[in-house]
C-alpha cells in the first residue's frame, strides 16, 4: 500500500533517528531512573548494560527497535554511558555480537503489550482506515445536525446546486461571488446576499463538538469543487459539504459586506468630503492672503501710533489714527479686508472638521440605497459602549422612509448624544430648513460615521464573522482558560506572582538607567549622545546619526569572487534543484484528502509557482504537448493544490533547510527578525484594496507584510488592504509563522507604534525594536516599586522624570494574562484587540494597563538605542532592516510581470499569489546560500584566507546569476543526488547566455 500521507523522506525516516536529539530530548527520553537502573544492573558486562540501556531508550524515543541497534547518534551513547559510569562508550560495539536472544525476548514482550510501533506500510493502512472512519463520522454528524434542526434544510441546500432558468450559474455560485464595486448600491446587494444566506439559519445547528478546523477543511474542499461534485456526492456527504459551505459563506459574506462598508465610508464619503473642503479652502487662500496683507499693514501702523501715544502719554486722537492708517490703505479697504477675514476664518477652532461634516451631509444619496437593509440587519450586535450607536443604526430605515419635506425632523426625534461637536452645525443649523428642524440627511450620515468608528473599535461587531467578530467573546475565560493557563504561562515565563515579575522588570530598568549614566560619564566629550535642557525646562536628548560601516578590501574581493563563482541558472531549474534537496513540493497535497493524486505533479506546481511569483499569468508556462503543463491541468492544480496552508507547509521545509546550511551561523541564529510591508498597486475593481496617494497615486493597493529572520529566511507573511499602521498587524504575522524558531527581537522600520503595542509585544516575549524617526522627542520612563531599591541616575536624572504607574498593571494583571493566552492560542487577532483597547486615543482601562507595562519595554529599548559608547544594538537593527529591504528588492525583480501590479480581485487570490512569491524568494535564498557556502569552502581549500567578519556580511539576495525572463523550460535539470552544479571559474571570461562560444 502506498504511504500517501508521508513523503518519501518521511517514510524513510520513520522509526529512525532523523537527527540528533536535542538536550531537552536527551534529558526526557534518555534519562535512567531507579527502575531502569535496577533492570540494567541485571546485565553482567559493561557492553551488555550500555547496549540494553540504548535499546530501551531507543524504543522510548523512536517507538521501535532498530535493525542496527547502534544506528544512533553517538551523543546518545555518550549520554547513557555517563549515567552508567562507563568510561569507554565504545564498548557498546560488542553488544551486537550476542543480541538476538535478548532482542527476540524483548520484541515478543513489547508486541504482547502493544508497545512497538507498526511497520510503515501497516501504519499507512491503519491511518487510511482511521481517516475513512473519521470522515464518515464527520459527514454523519453534520448531516444529522442539519436534519434535526429542520428536516427540510438538506433539500433546501441541495436546491442551491440547481441553475435557474435564464442564468449561467447555480444559486450556490451566485452566493459565492463577493462584491467588487464600492458604491451604495453594491453595499445594498452585499447586505441582500448576507440576508439570503442567513435565511438558512445555520447558526441553530449544534456542531460545537466538531473542531472548527474540520468544518473549515470540509468547506474548503467543497468550495474548491464545481457544483457537479457536491451534487453527485452521496448522502450524508452531500448535505455535510453544503452545510459546511453555507456556514463558511455566512461569515464570509458578513466580512465582505463590512469590508465594503468601511471602504465605502473611507473613499466615497470621508476622503471625498475632506478633499472637497480642502479644495474649497485652498481656493479662498489668495483672497485671504490679500485681505491679510492689508490688515497686516494697517495693524503695523496702528500699533506704532499707539506706542507713540503711550510713550508721550498723549490723548488718543482717533482721527489722527485713521489718517495714519489710511496712508497705507484706504479705510474702506481695511474694513473690507476685515470682513473678508471674518468670513473666511470661522471662530470655531475645528472649523475644518465642521466644514468637512457639512460636505459629508451632501453625500446622503450615496448611502440611501442601503439604509433599510443595514438598519434591519440581524448580523450586527454591540458591546455596552456601542449600544447607542447600534440603536441609532436601527432607526435609519424609518428616517430613510420619512418625507422630511412634509414633516420636518425635530430634535426630540433623534439621539443628540450621537451628534459630536463637529456635526452639530450641519445637523441642527441648516439655514435651508425651518427654524429648529434637524437635517435628516446630515444626521443619517453622522450616525453612519459613528458606526464606522464603532466597527473599527469593535464596539459594534458582527456574528458570525471572522474579521469583524467580538474580540471580547473570543478571549479565554473560565474553564477554557483554566485548561491552558499553566502551559501558556510557563511557555511565556509568566508563571510567577505579578509583584515578583514587576520587581524583576523594575530592577532591570533601573540597571539600564544606571548603565546609561555611567557610559555617558565614561565617554565624556566623545559621547555619541548629549543632553540639552531647553528654555521651557524640558530635557532633550541629541543622538548622533549612525555612520556607515567601512568596507574592507577583503570583503569587496570576497563579494566579487563569490558572485562570479555562482552558477547561472533559470528559475524553474532552481526550484527543481531545491526540491531535490528538501522535497518541499511534497507539501502540495490535494484539498480533499491530503494526498497527491497525479503524475508529474511537481512539474505542474513549479510552473504555477513561476506563473504566480513572476506575475506573468499561465500563457508563458502552458505547453499543450506536455500533459503536466496543459492549461486544464494547471488550472486544476491551482484550484486543488496551491493554497495558503500548503504554501506554509512548503515554506517550513525551506526555512528548516536554510537553518541547516553551515554558513548561516555567521549571519544569525534566527532569534532576530524584522517585519515590514511591500506595497503593490491593484488596478482591478476590488473591495480588498485601499487608497494611499503616497504609494498608489490615484489608485488603490495592498500591503504584503512579511517577516524575515537574520538567517535571511522569510518566516511569515500576510496581506492587508491599503497601507495600514504596520504595528497593528505585525503581531498577527508573528503569531502565525510558517516555521523557524520564535524570534526574540523584532525590528521594524519607523513603525507606527504606541506604548500599548510595546506592552503586548513584551508580555508575549518579544523585544519590539522599532527604528524611531523622531528619536530626539521620545519620552523616557522610570519605574519604582515598594520593596525594590532604585537609585538616582546622575546626568540623565531629568530625562527619567516620567513614572510608570505599576498599580494599573497589578490591578489588570489577570486579564492581561488571559489576553496573552488568547493571542498565543490564536483565539483572537492582535489587530482586533489593539483596535478595541485604543478607542481613538482614549484607551480602555485594560489598554491603559498594557500601555503602562509597555513603557518599561519601550524605555529599555530606547536606553539600548542611545548608548553613548556602543552602537552595536542600533547597527544590529539597521543590518536586519537592510536585509528586509534587499529581500523586497529581490521580490520586485521576481514579480516583474504586469509592471509589478497585482490583478487579483479577491483576498484569497491575493494571499495565494503573494504566498507563492514568498515561497519562491525563500527557494532562491536557499539555493544561493548553499552555493555561497560551497564557494567559501572551495576558496578556503584553494588556500585563500577568508575572515569570519567578511562572511557575516555576505548576502544571498544577490541574483545576477539567476534568469527570470525569456522562455521557461520545465524539464528538470538537477545534478546527481547529493551533488551541486559546478562552480564557475571566477578568473574566467564573463559569458552571457547569448555570447558565442567562439568569441
What's the short version?
The protein has 999 residues and is of the alpha/beta class.
Explain what you see.
The protein has 999 residues and is α/β, with parallel strands linked by helices. Helix content is 53%, strand content 6%. The chain is built from 40 helices and 14 strands. Strands 6, 7, 8, 9, 10 and 11 form a six-stranded mixed β-sheet that branches. It has a two-stranded antiparallel sheet with strand order 1-2. Helix 11 packs across helix 13 and helix 33 runs antiparallel to helix 36 (830-838). The longest helix has 47 residues, at 237-283. Residues 993-999 have low confidence and may be disordered.
How is the topology of this model organized?
Elements: H1 8-13, H2 23-29, H3 34-40, H4 46-62, H5 74-84, H6 100-112, H7 120-149, H8 153-159, H9 171-176, H10 184-198, H11 212-223, H12 228-232, H13 237-283, H14 285-312, H15 318-326, H16 331-344, H17 351-360, H18 364-367, H19 371-376, E1 380-382, H20 387-394, H21 396-401, H22 421-428, H23 440-457, E2 460-462, H24 471-474, H25 478-491, H26 498-523, E3 529-533, E4 539-543, H27 553-565, E5 569-570, H28 571-582, H29 601-613, H30 631-640, H31 644-659, E6 672-681, E7 690-691, H32 693-696, E8 700-709, E9 714-721, H33 727-734, E10 745-749, H34 755-763, E11 767-771, E12 781-782, E13 802-803, H35 806-824, H36 830-838, H37 845-865, H38 872-894, H39 907-941, H40 948-951, E14 962-963
Parallel strand pairs: 5-14, 6-10, 10-11, 12-13
Antiparallel strand pairs: 1-2, 3-4, 6-8, 7-8, 8-9
